Every structure is written in structure tokens, then in C-alpha cells.
UniProtKB/TrEMBL annotation, chain A:
Protein family (similarity comment): Belongs to the complex I 24 kDa subunit family.
Name of the protein in question: NAD(P)H-dependent oxidoreductase subunit E
Cofactor descriptive note: Binds 1 [2Fe-2S] cluster.
Pfam families xref list: 2Fe-2S_thioredx
Gene3D superfamilies: Glutaredoxin, NADH-quinone oxidoreductase subunit E
Residues that bind [2Fe-2S] cluster: C78, C83, C119, C123
Co-factor(s): [2Fe-2S] cluster
Molecular function via GO: 2 iron, 2 sulfur cluster binding; metal ion binding; oxidoreductase activity
First and last residue of the signal peptide: none
Keywords (A to Z) from UniProt: 2Fe-2S, Iron, Iron-sulfur, Metal-binding
Top-level division of the source organism's lineage: Bacteria
Automatic annotation (TrEMBL), chain B:
Keyword Heme part of the UniProt annotation: no
Record keywords, A-Z: 2Fe-2S, 4Fe-4S, Iron, Iron-sulfur, Membrane, Metal-binding, NAD, Repeat, Translocase
Subcellular location per the Swiss-Prot or TrEMBL entry: Membrane
One Gene Ontology term of the molecular function aspect: ferredoxin hydrogenase activity
Segments passing through the bilayer: none
Cross-referenced SUPFAM superfamilies: 2Fe-2S ferredoxin-like, 4Fe-4S ferredoxins, Fe-only hydrogenase
Pfam families given in the database record: Fe_hyd_lg_C, Fe_hyd_SSU, Fer2_4, Fer4_Nqo3, NADH-G_4Fe-4S_3
Protein family: Belongs to the complex I 75 kDa subunit family.
Example of a GO biological process term: ATP synthesis coupled electron transport
Every 4Fe-4S His(Cys)3-ligated-type domain range: 81-120
UniProt name for this protein: Ferredoxin
Organism: Ancylomarina longa
UniProtKB/TrEMBL annotation, chain C:
UniProt keyword annotations, A-Z: 4Fe-4S, Iron, Iron-sulfur, Metal-binding
UniProt keyword Transcription, yes or no: no
InterPro entries per record: NADH-UbQ_OxRdtase_51kDa_CS, Nuo51_FMN-bd, Nuo51_FMN-bd_sf, Nuop51_4Fe4S-bd, Nuop51_4Fe4S-bd_sf
Pfam families per UniProt: Complex1_51K, NADH_4Fe-4S
Organism the protein comes from: Ancylomarina longa
Protein name per Swiss-Prot or TrEMBL: NADH-quinone oxidoreductase subunit E
Annotated GO MF terms: 4 iron, 4 sulfur cluster binding; FMN binding; metal ion binding; NADH dehydrogenase (ubiquinone) activity
Family statement drawn from the similarity comment of this UniProt entry: Belongs to the complex I 51 kDa subunit family.
Coiled-coil zones: none
Residues of the NADH-ubiquinone oxidoreductase 51kDa subunit iron-sulphur binding domain: 311-356
Length: 155, 596, 395
């Protein structure tokens, strides 16, 4: 049994096969794999007896349930009004320069994906971003590079 | 007795049953409220918002399809506010919609087009959103085409595929401006669990889902002096075609249809009903053989219940969803494919034409038949058994193109051979019909007597109910069938794949046991097929059903085994049911398919 | 520095640490249901998520339902731009929210509760789980059969709409349902459900502790009690503030502005933009008309100074709505796209200025016909910005 198979089975036995457990199961996969592959969705669809197109349709509704491959660290920079007013674009530019990829792209070593997202709820400490589930606020073009350097240099 | 609710619509008082919607109440007053996402076959979505109406005391407009009536309600369906909003909504839909009406397959049959005409959307100047949309058009399937640029996101197809058919090949994906109707990871319809049943087409208000048309190919063949073009017509076409040509629902037009086909230039106009009768001979014998193996030989490997295999939508469904039950599926090809295999062998020999010079066309109430004809297995004649499949709707197009005044035509008769039909063949077009035809023949073979029902009408298998059950006690058997003496033959019949799903689950869980089950993919059976005229609802289906049974009652021969051409084909060519030759030409095998 | 202006009345009820939670709960749970409902109704508490439905009535309607299974759901899908107070409440005084849920469960007969927490706040989960475990022990001591679970969202603003939230919890796309039926009758899993905003539940704790009168004493007619405000934008002191309802925007700007305030967005992107000339005439609260207009709000106050382009602000909001609309209903899905593309076209000179009037009419249609509050409220910011800053919108 491969890793994915185990992951899906583990989540199914933890939550059960009722439709109301679909989101926690999809989230559980994303926690590990950072995205939902065709294989994973198919496995979940079979185990929960939900048509695969419907699992895909549901996943694609939620911005945190990616259906495209993502890096180990998904950077989500808030682009909503306050962060935008407080220099989101400069932060994004600094990140793009540092990681050498554009927003929407993943680094070649599959370590980072840069995305923009809607309001993260840190308007009083704008600009803000998430790296996976971790929140970083009051970003500057300098400190954001320091933050990402730590991730980059981690083994 | 349920409670009545009093309300007024456009100043007219009305009293309706509690629980009805404003839309339904308005219908009673003969007030039409425009709709798009609403369909009588489906659950309420309330998402297009075209049906909004004004309710006194409510500062918002309400969706009449989704709002139940309440006591004292005052509704205005045509205020200035309502009209302006509706107009806006239609305009908005048009900006997401590739407007190429004159080049659209559904030109003249499109609900959006109709509404735009009604509201005279002549000067809409919102921004055209189509150029930025990256719409995809999927033309890979041999049966169904999906053009996202025509889609208005009403989700009727999604509800159809999930609710009526329990397939779920298409679903809503993404959100906001990106929201669309997708298959699993946007694969082609050809790659996914789609059964090609075409119910999505019948329920689509626009040209987003259409059948793949072979009309031009057929015209080419007719015009080619070197080929002999033979056409077969399925039972449900003769009770559906009239509807598409301006006659009322449930008008029987068999003779006119034959006349029209002859005028179109087909070299020979034959009847799928003939191979429906042949199917009964083969499938009935197969059933009796399976029963003998189970009851006499004690063979525990025999797959029972045996399931019918005439409906290609159902066949593909079981291949995807219940592959472990493939041995239960009758090995008989569908009547269309039996016809195709015989057309290029038996028929070719009979008229002395080389099979490679025959083009075999079928007119079907079905889109899955297009897929079926393209299955790689369907070449047992040595050629593609059926070259082109047209739907009832496509035939109507050809008749119109040819300038034939259909309702003025005099009735004509099918050609021969393979043109004689019985009432048993005709009722293949309705849910329960295959079962009824099979019982008419099998019971008589086994007992020497007619089925014990008035006028051969086996009423328990009739009607639009989702799952019907029937059992027939076999007594007074002939000597060679005495192993069936006293056996209660248990049967079940379903229409619509949602019901097939229910039945299969009951069988799988051991809640139900049967000997024989008839499954048709579409609601009502082939008469409600994906290739039939629209709009359709149960009222229309019932009319078509009555027409089929009338057709049966009016035919001189009503049992398959009494069809003289059937007797002849066995004498001259096939020898006997399940013979070596019939196995080669009339039977097939199935494949397990993916579950997405 | 001297000032003649009075400072706004800062309240310290919600975030005040409270050690006697268990005792308050014991007392509340021993009261007859009707008494609690009366307290809640009398307090005048209205939903703090932004829509302002009377909380007591919601509880009452659900309590009256004969259904066996019922649910209490805490809506912590705080996604309105400029709002972050629910996170603060959940991280600082979770026991108040949980207590509110428990009392609601007691009177309605619900045995199961959920906190629908937006995915963006996932980092709160470990701490919150600990609090829930502690709270469950208290409930066991008090003999109330009620359990609370966290349900995590996955990044979809629309799931803050209550019926979309139910759909999401049921494992589906967060598409709002048709109403009626309403949640009190047909909510999560089609069972009667009380769904309250985080702050509403925390206020209910205050009411249980101090009684309805103390809560009623705060605020103004129709807008009783205090409200937690999320203050951001061009202000020297961004953050969370609990203030009395009924203040004017002018009072607010005097306290929080940077001296150069051009406009205040009240209620987030789905709320209204108040320009300087209307500061004095606009109050923050529900319906209760004092002078000028009164704006209900989930508590988002975004301050813009004169360096900000209102075109950019509107463009940002519309970009947000165009993405976050669930996409099912025509006026919202297509309307948002048309508004966004429309203002850009006007700005670029591709459409005449008069096109703005056409778009204004479109927002009116959206307000009248959209299926849920999202599509209906896009008109708010659009019309208030375009009406007041038309000159900034044009080429």
C-alpha cells in the first residue's frame, strides 16, 4: 500500500464515509501533500461513494484545497484592501525576487509556491501572509526575505 | 386534505394548496413566469433568478420557483421593477454566452434565445466577457458535445446527471467568475463515467450540451450512387418524431415516418422492431438456458438475475459502476446492433449487394446509441455494423431540410426483409416493454399458452414508477420445460439510472432476489430518451407511453416468435436461437471501466 | 495637548477576564428556559456578524421546534475585509463563547455544537481544542449533555453566509440555499439550528452574567449594547476596540483618524463608504435613525486618508467579490464581473462616464435579485463610492 493509499484510508477511518466528513478528509490530505491529486480524489470518491466529479467540484470551490501541485511551503500573500494599501505589492516583488518565481508558480525544487489570497484578517497588522498555516504580519520587503530564508535554509 | 392558501397574483385572487410555489400558483392562473434553471423533472435550484417577482412588503424580489406561497401574499409578476431586473439578468447571461445564434446547433430551440427575443434584448451594451473566458469545447465523444461558451450555469445538467441518473459525470466546479460545469479534472466526456444517455442534452436550455450530429454524413451517403443506404428506425422514434415536427405529444406517425424516409432517399427503410423481436428470441432463450443451468444442473456459477442489455446507457453505467455484475448482463446485443450485424450479412446477401457498399444508418431516440455503434466490438459483420446513428431530432432536421410537409404525407409501409414488426417489438420503446415482450414469448414457449393477462397486456410492468416488480407463476409446463413447473418467475423493471442504482443496491445487499431485470437508462424508457424532442416532463412521457401501447394494440401480430420474418431468418440464416452463427453476430461482451 | 472633544466610551466587557465562568453557567443553566429567552429578548442583542437579526428571537424559534436533533453553531468564518475581532475574542475569551453556546443548547435542546472556524485561523485550533476540553469537563460537572467540535473552513468567504456554511459543513460547495426555510427550522443536516456570530455568543455571556438591563443601558434605541470594532487603515492606532453603539462616524474619526481622514468604510467591503461630508450625520448601529443614516456593521472600520484613490479601493473590493462570489446566481456571478470590468473600462476611457450610471442600475438589480447577502450587498460599497467619488472613477 503506497503512502497516499495509507493517508486516505487513515483519514477515512478517522472521520467516516458520510458526506459531511468530506472537508476534513480533503484538508487532511492537503496538510500532508499540499494539494489534491487525481489519484487521491479518486480514492476518496470511491471510499465515500461520492462521484469523483463532485469531489473535484467541491474541492475546487475552496481556495485552500488546491487541485494543482504545490510546493512544500505555500505562501499566501493577502491582497485585500488594507494589505494592498500597506505595500503588498512591494512584499510580493521582494518574494518573487528572492525565490525567482512569479506569483502562481512553484520553485523548481518544489519547496515554495507563491499565491495571493483574499483577506486573512490581519488588517491592523498589514501586510500579512500565510506560509502554510503560519501567520506573518507587519511585513516589510526586508523582513519577508529573512522569514523565507529560514524556510529555504531548513533541511 | 391539505390546507389551502389564499393569495393574489397580479391582482387576481387564487387559492392553492399549501406548499406550492409562487410559480406553480401562477401557472394555475395561466400566468407564465419565465424560467431557466427551473425544470419540472428536477429539484429547485433558484439560481438563474429570471423568475423573480415582486411581493408586497418585501423590499427584495423573490424567486418564484423557490418561494412557497403564504397566506395573504400579494405578488406582482410584471411590475416595472420586475421587468427591468429580468432584462438585466438576461443581458448578464448573454455577456457570458458566446453569441453566435445563427451558427449554433440549438438555433431556434434555445430557451435563452427565446427569452432574449421575448424581452427584446436589442441594445445590450454590457461588456462581452467571452474573450477573457478561456472556454473549452469538448467534441471528443462520439455521442455528446459540451461547449462551455454556451453554458449559462443553470446546473440543470448537473442535477439531471446526479438526481435522475445517479451518474455524477458532471458537477459544478470552482467559484466566482471561474465557476463552471466540469467533469473530473475537466477530462473529456469520452473519458469519464458519462453514459452518453443524453438526458443532460434534453434538460439543457441552450447549446452547451448537444448530440454529435451525423446528418451531413448521412446526406453524403444518400447522395453517393455507389452505396446502398439502409435505415432502421427504433420503436420510440415513431411516437416522438411528430412532436419535433409540430404535431402534439404522443402522435403516432409510423407510416408518415416511413414515407418521409423514402422521400429522403434511403434505399431501404427497415425496422429496428424486427431485431427487437429477434432480441426476444435470443434473450428469452438465454434466460431459459440460465434458469435451466441454475435449477436443473445446480450450476452455482450462473449469474442471476439476468439483466437486459438493450439500453447502451445502462450498459455503460454497469460497466463503470457495477463491473462485478457484468456476467449478469445478457450477452445479447441491442436491437440496433443486431440489425447492423444482419444488415451487412443476411440482408446484404438477400439483396445481393456487397456489404462494403452498404451504409447502415439508424434513427434512435437515444444518444448512447451513437456511442454503442462506435464500440470496437461492434464489427462482427466484418465491417462497422452501424455506420451512423441519428437521433429523432436529427431526423426531423433532415425532413425539414428536404422540404417535406410531414403532416401531409400518406402512410407508407416498411420495406422487406427486416421490416416486419410486432407489438412486442414496438413496446421495446417503453419502460417495462422488453419485459412484457419477453414474457409474452417465454411463457408461451414454456407452457404452450398465452400469458395469463387480458389481451396480452401485462399491466404490472407498465407505468412510470421508478422500480416495478412483477412475478409470474409458471404452471402447466410443456414436457421439455417441466423443470420450471411451479417456479415463480420474479422480475423487476426500472427506468432512469437513479432507479437502476437503487435496484442494484437492493440486489447487492441481498434485500431482493430476481430472475430477470429490465433496465432502461432514461426516464420512461426509450420514449424519454436523450435523442427525443424537448421539452419533456412526465406529462409528455405519459402521452408518448399511451401512443406506444396503442401502436402495440393496433398491430396484427403482437408476439415476437410469431413474426414471420423472425421465423424466416432462423430458417434461412441463423438456424436457431443461441446457434453458433447467432453467437457470432448477435451476442457481445462487456468491459470494466473507470469510476470517474 | 488639550482637546475639547470627548473620547468615545471604551467598554471593557467582552475581553474582561472572567474567572467565575463555571458559576455563571451554573446559575444560568438552573434558570427556566423561558426566563433565559426573556432575558435575551429584553437585552435587545442583535447579531454581531453584520445582519443584525435579534438573537433572542433566533433562540426562541429554535427552542420551539419539536425536532429531536438540533444544533448550535458558532460562526467564526470571519472573512469580511477589515474584520478580525472574532479571532481576538476566540483567542482571548473562548470560554465566554462556549458558555453562550451551552446556554443556547440548554434552552433549544441541542446536544451538539460546532465552531466553524475559517481556514485562515487554523493556528488557533490547538489552543481552542484545549479550551473546549476544559469546557466539556465543566459541562460534565454541571450535568449538561452538550459537546462542541471545531469545523475548519478551507478558504471561501461566502461560507460566512449561514446557509452556505451549512452546505460547507455537509461536505459540499458553499452555495447559499433558498430561503425560506430558515436555519431555525432547517439548518445543518436540515435540522433546526441556531447559528450565531462569535461576538454575539460572547455578548450573551455578558447578558447572562449581568442581566439584560446592564446591556440595554449601553447604546441607543434599536442598537443596544456594545460592539467590538476592528479598526484598520490610515490610523495611528489600528486594533480591536469595544465601543458603545450609536456613535457618529465623526466621533469615531476624531478618536481614530490620522487627522487627514477622507472616508471611512463601515462594515467591510460589503458595507458602506462614508465620505467626510457625511461623518457627522452617520451613526453606527442598526435602523435607529437619529440624524442622517445609520449603518449596521459587523464591526469593520477601515479608514482612508486623502492619499488614497477611491478607484483603487473600489477596484480592490470588486476584485474580491468577483472571486468570492459562489458563482451560482446570475446577478452576483456576472454582475460582479461586469462591475469590475466596467469601472476599469471607464477608468481607461473605453466606456463613457455615463456607463457608471448603467452600473449603478445594475447594482440595484443585484440588490433586488441576488440569492444571498453577498450579491445583494455589493451595491452598498459600489454606490457609496461612485456617488461620492465619481471624479476619481473617470479617465
Amino acid at each position: 500500500m503506497d503512502f497516499q493509499e495509507k493517508l486516505v484510508q487513515g483519514l477515512i477511518s478517522k472521520y467516516g464515509t458520510d458526506r459531511e466528513n468530506l472537508l476534513p478528509i480533503l484538508q487532511g490530505v492537503v496538510d500532508q501533500e499540499r494539494f489534491l491529486s487525481e489519484d487521491v480524489i479518486l480514492k476518496i470518491s470511491k471510499a465515500m461513494a461520492i462521484p469523483a466529479a463532485h469531489v473535484y467540484g467541491t474541492a475546487s470551490f475552496y481556495s485552500f484545497l488546491d487541485t494543482e501541485p504545490r510546493g512544500k511551503y505555500v505562501i499566501r500573500i493577502c491582497k485585500t484592501i488594507t494589505c494592498s494599501m500597506k505595500g503588498k505589492n512591494q512584499i510580493l516583488l521582494a518574494i518573487e525576487n528572492f525565490l525567482k518565481v512569479k506569483v502562481g508558480e512553484t520553485t523548481i525544487d518544489k519547496k515554495f509556491t507563491i499565491l495571493q489570497t483574499n483577506c486573512l484578517g490581519w488588517c491592523h497588522k498589514a501586510p500579512a501572509m500565510l506560509v502554510n498555516d503560519e501567520v506573518y504580519t507587519e511585513l516589510t520587503p526586508e523582513n519577508v526575505v529573512d522569514i523565507l530564508r529560514e524556510y529555504k535554509e531548513e533541511k | 386534505m391539505s390546507n389551502m392558501v389564499n393569495l393574489s397574483i397580479n391582482g387576481i385572487a387564487v387559492s392553492v394548496k399549501e406548499g406550492l410555489t409562487i410559480l406553480e400558483a401562477a401557472e394555475k392562473l395561466h400566468i407564465k413566469i419565465p424560467t431557466l434553471c427551473y425544470h419540472k423533472d428536477l429539484c429547485i435550484a433558484g439560481n438563474c433568478r429570471v423568475c423573480v417577482v415582486e411581493q408586497t412588503g418585501n423590499n427584495k424580489l423573490v424567486a418564484s420557483c423557490a418561494t412557497p406561497v403564504s397566506e395573504g401574499m400579494e405578488i406582482n409578476t410584471n411590475s416595472l421593477k420586475v421587468r427591468n431586473c429580468r432584462k438585466h439578468i438576461i443581458e448578464l447571461l448573454l455577456t457570458e454566452h458566446r453569441e453566435e445564434c445563427t451558427k449554433c446547433y440549438r438555433n431556434g430551440h434555445c430557451e435563452l434565445q427565446e427569452l432574449s427575443a421575448e424581452f427584446q434584448i436589442t441594445n445590450q451594451d454590457f461588456i462581452d466577457l467571452v474573450p477573457d473566458k478561456n472556454y473549452t469545447v469538448d467534441r471528443i465523444s462520439p455521442a455528446i458535445e459540451k461547449d462551455d461558451s454556451k453554458c449559462i450555469r443553470c446546473q440543470r445538467c448537473v442535477r439531471t446527471c446526479a438526481e435522475i441518473q445517479s451518474v455524477g459525470a458532471i458537477a459544478v466546479s470552482h467559484k466566482g467568475s471561474e465557476m463552471k460545469i466540469s467533469t473530473f479534472f475537466d477530462r473529456s466526456l469520452d473519458e469519464v463515467v458519462c453514459t452518453n444517455c443524453g438526458q443532460c442534452i434534453v434538460h439543457c436550455p441552450t447549446g452547451a450540451l448537444t448530440e454529435k450530429s451525423y446528418v451531413e454524413k448521412v446526406w453524403d451517403a444518400i447522395a453517393d450512387p455507389d452505396v446502398h443506404v439502409v435505415v432502421q428506425t427504433a420503436p420510440a422514434v415513431r411516437i416522438g418524431l411528430g412532436e419535433e415536427l409540430g404535431l402534439g405529444s404522443g402522435t403516432r406517425v409510423t407510416g408518415k415516418m416511413v414515407a418521409a424516409l423514402k422521400r429522403l432517399g434511403f434505399d431501404s427503410v427497415l425496422d429496428t422492431d424486427f431485431t427487437a423481436d429477434l432480441t426476444i428470441m435470443e434473450e428469452g432463450t438465454e434466460l431459459l438456458t440460465r434458469l435451466k443451468r441454475a435449477l436443473v444442473d445446480g450450476d452455482t456459477e450462473v449469474a442471476l438475475p439476468m439483466a437486459t442489455s438493450c439500453s447502451p446507457g445502462w450498459v455503460k453505467y454497469i460497466e463503470h459502476k457495477y463491473p462485478e455484475y457484468l456476467p449478469n448482463l445478457s450477452t445479447c446485443k441491442s436491437p440496433q446492433q443486431m440489425f447492423g450485424a444482419l444488415a451487412k450479412t443476411y440482408y446484404a446477401k438477400n439483396i445481393d449487394v456487397e456489404p462494403q457498399n452498404i451504409v447502415s444508418v439508424s434513427i434512435m431516440p437515444c444518444t448512447a446509441k451513437k456511442f454503442e455503434a462506435n464500440r470496437p466490438e461492434m464489427k462482427d459483420s466484418g465491417y462497422k455494423d452501424v455506420d451512423y446513428v441519428l437521433t429523432t431530432r436529427e431526423l426531423a432536421v433532415m425532413i425539414k431540410q428536404a422540404g417535406i410537409e410531414f403532416e401531409k404525407l400518406n402512410d407508407e409501409h416498411f420495406d422487406s426483409i427486416m421490416g416486419v414488426s410486432t407489438g412486442a417489438g414496438v413496446i421495446f420503446g417503453v419502460t417495462g416493454g422488453v419485459m412484457e415482450a419477453a414474457l409474452r414469448t417465454a411463457y408461451e414457449i414454456v407452457t404452450g399458452r398465452e400469458v395469463p393477462f387480458d389481451n396480452l397486456e401485462i399491466t404490472p410492468v407498465r407505468g412510470l414508477a421508478g422500480v416495478k416488480e412483477a412475478s409470474i407463476q409458471i404452471t402447466g409446463t410443456k414436457k421439455e420445460w417441466n423443470f420450471l413447473e411451479g417456479v415463480e418467475l420474479k422480475c423487476a423493471i426500472t427506468n432512469g439510472l437513479q432507479n437502476a442504482h437503487k435496484l442494484m443496491e437492493a440486489i447487492k445487499n441481498g434485500e431482493r432476489t430476481y430472475h430477470f431485470i429490465e433496465i432502461m437508462a432514461c426516464p420512461g424508457g426509450c420514449l424519454g430518451g436523450g435523442g427525443q424532442p424537448f421539452p419533456v416532463d412526465n406529462e409528455v412521457r405519459l402521452k408518448r407511453m399511451q401512443a406506444i401501447y396503442e401502436e402495440d394494440r393496433n398491430l396484427p401480430i403482437r408476439k415476437s416468435h410469431e413474426n414471420p420474418e423472425i421465423v424466416q431468418v432462423y430458417q434461412d440464416f441463423l438456424e436457431e436461437p443461441l446457434s453458433h452463427k447467432s453467437h457470432k453476430l448477435l451476442h457481445t461482451s462487456y468491459v470494466k471501466r473507470e469510476q470517474y | 495637548m488639550t482637546t475639547t472633544k470627548k473620547q468615545l466610551h471604551r467598554i471593557d466587557l467582552i475581553f474582561k477576564n472572567d474567572e467565575d465562568c463555571k458559576e455563571i453557567l451554573r446559575k444560568a443553566l438552573s434558570k427556566p428556559n423561558q426566563e433565559i429567552i426573556n432575558e435575551m429578548v429584553n437585552s435587545g442583542l442583535k447579531g454581531r456578524g453584520g445582519a443584525g437579526f435579534p438573537t433572542g428571537l433566533k433562540w426562541k424559534l429554535t427552542a420551539e421546534s419539536k425536532e429531536k436533533d438540533k444544533y448550535v453553531i458558532c460562526n467564526a468564518d470571519e472573512g469580511e475585509p477589515g474584520t478580525f475581532k472574532d479571532r481576538e475574542i476566540l483567542s482571548r475569551v473562548p470560554h465566554k463563547v462556549l458558555s453562550g453556546m451551552a446556554v443556547c443548547a440548554k434552552i433549544t435542546g441541542a446536544r451538539k455544537g460546532f465552531i466553524y472556524l475559517r481556514g485562515e485561523y487554523k493556528f488557533l485550533v490547538p489552543e481552542l481544542k484545549k479550551e473546549i476540553r476544559k469546557f466539556h469537563d465543566i459541562l460534565d460537572d454541571l450535568g449538561l449533555d452538550f459537546r462542541v467540535e471545531i469545523f475548519l473552513g478551507s478558504g471561501a468567504y461566502i461560507c460566512g453566509e449561514e446557509s452556505a456554511l451549512f452546505e460547507s459543513m455537509e461536505g459540499k460547495r458553499g452555495e447559499p440555499r433558498n430561503k425560506p426555510p430558515f436555519p431555525t427550522e432547517c439548518g445543518y443536516l436540515n435540522k433546526p439550528t441556531v447559528i450565531n456570530n462569535v461576538e454575539t455568543l460572547a455578548h450573551s455571556y455578558t447578558i447572562l452574567k449581568f442581566g439584560a438591563q446592564k446591556f440595554r443601558d449601553l447604546g441607543v434605541k434599536d442598537s443596544r449594547g456594545s460592539k467590538v470594532f476592528s479598526v484598520s487603515g490610515d490610523t495611528p492606532i489600528p486594533g480591536i476596540y469595544e465601543l458603545e453603539l450609536g456613535m457618529t462616524v465623526q466621533d469615531f474619526v476624531d478618536d481614530f483618524g490620522d487627522g487627514d481622514t477622507k472616508a471611512v468604510q463601515v462594515g467591510g467591503a460589503s458595507g458602506f463608504l462614508v465620505p467626510r461630508k457625511r461623518f457627522a450625520k452617520t451613526t453606527i448601529g442598526y435602523q435607529g435613525k437619529l440624524t442622517g443614516i445609520s449603518l449596521p456593521t459587523g464591526g469593520s472600520m477601515m479608514i482612508f486618508n486623502s492619499s488614497r484613490s477611491m478607484y483603487n479601493v473600489l477596484n480592490n473590493y470588486l476584485d474580491f467579490f468577483e472571486e468570492e462570489s459562489c458563482g451560482q446566481c446570475t446577478p452576483c456571478r456576472v454582475g460582479c464581473q461586469q462591475l469590475l470590468k466596467g469601472i476599469r473600462a471607464v477608468k481607461r476611457g473605453e466606456k463613457p462616464t455615463s456607463y457608471l450610471d448603467k452600473l449603478m442600475k445594475l447594482t440595484e438589480t443585484m440588490k433586488l435579485t441576488a440569492k444571498c447577502g453577498l450579491g445583494q450587498s455589493v451595491a452598498n460599497s459600489f454606490s457609496s463610492i461612485v456617488e461620492n467619488f465619481r471624479e476619481e472613477m473617470i479617465y
